[in-house]
NADH-quinone oxidoreductase subunit N
Amino acid sequence: MDLSTSLYLVRPELILSFSSLALLLIAAWRQEAGRLVSILSVAALVGAGAYAVHYLCAGTDASAFEGLYRADAFSSFAKILIYFAAAISLMIAPKALEKMGAMRAEYPVLVILAAVGMGVMVSATDLLTLYIGLELNSLAAYVLASFARNDGRSAEAGLKYFVLGALASGILLFGMSLLYGFTGSTSFETIGTAMTGELSMGLLFGLVFVLSGLAFKISAAPFHMWTPDVYEGAPTPVTAFFASAPKVAASALLIRIVVEAFGNQVQAWQQIVMVVALMSIIIGAVGAIGQQNLKRLLAYSSINNVGFLLIGLAAGTEQGVAAMLVYLAIYVAMTLGGFICLMQLKGRDGEMKESMADIAGLSKTRPALAAIFAIFMFSLAGIPPLFGFYGKLVVFNAAIAAGLFPLAVIGIAASVIGAFYYLKVVKTMYFDESVDSIDVADDKILGWTGGALGLVVSPLGYLAIPVLGAVTAQAAGALF
């Protein structure tokens, strides 16, 4: 394949790369241009997303750069979710960061650079491309976590994320070196061919280390230890970004490497994925019960939701992957909506409120905010008729269809534990005595985006099932 064709296939990444360089120059010349750079960054994400939509609709399925990168329906769908989540994260950030004294023009540039890395991740068909994309995303994320330099919690979050992220990268690199050493190639396709038949001990260790490194990136138990501290310490707009776009990218990368590189050894990785899924569901649910900080609660919610995602992957089927993608799309809307509601909890003194005690009786002082927050909590809990229920339904259906009935039963039972802490939030807002500590929000963008996402996860979301089902089936089919 010639260079021009390869450059055509990577146009989303090229748009974002050149945009980030141009915006970085604006940031260097005009430090006060944070809002302008944010608007232009959203425009760049929309442009890159338009190409991803075009590739998806056109059925593009081709490799670039001698097989290092693949543009197909799967990567296009994942990029649409990533760019959407990144754009929403940029739209809601400026006012909140300005109040913290942390809004600088470099912030949207870092988000754009992270989006470039995530785009490379979901299109990677080689271990080298995988690692380049992963590190580009991670390096930007470390800076974003510690972006509020005057806040000790933010600095601590960035340091923890950097140290534990470096450890996870080392584990991943060791696994990649074992795969290369025992197969003689870094290509997913060649590794998959070499894994046909009996699995050697070296390849088994390589598989385990790679899955462990990627489990850290999606914050799956038992590699979740960084998530609550980083989510709590990072600025809330950054946390909203971490909980959505990178989660989609890492999950999509995990799907691709499992299906394309390890697809011939389902028995080898299926047990690992099943155990990690159940641990994530249970630890995420139990860990959230005693949390009084809402950001930590949503961090454990993120771990819990990763467990449900992995149930679809454990099925090892095309239906299971399609179910994962459906769940990811709904999860992005629910999580962003939850954090948008959290960002509207501003006290009378102008400080952001994050504790459970601060939302006591919120339904009496801010009924609209309490109602939309309750919708997101009920949807995350998977309570019908909200759209979050459908996400869990398709994942469990895929597991049962693959013969994993016990896994589905345990997952359904464990989801009841998770419902407890979501209902606890609703109970605090509607039945506890009002403390009247939350002021009226003055950021209309938060209200509009929260309302729009609330409609997505409401019963109206079911109207999107025919389109969402067809697109996710097309994306999953590209891997099989």
Observations:
- Residues 265-479 form one domain.
- The chain has a mean pLDDT of 90.
- The radius of gyration is 21 Å.
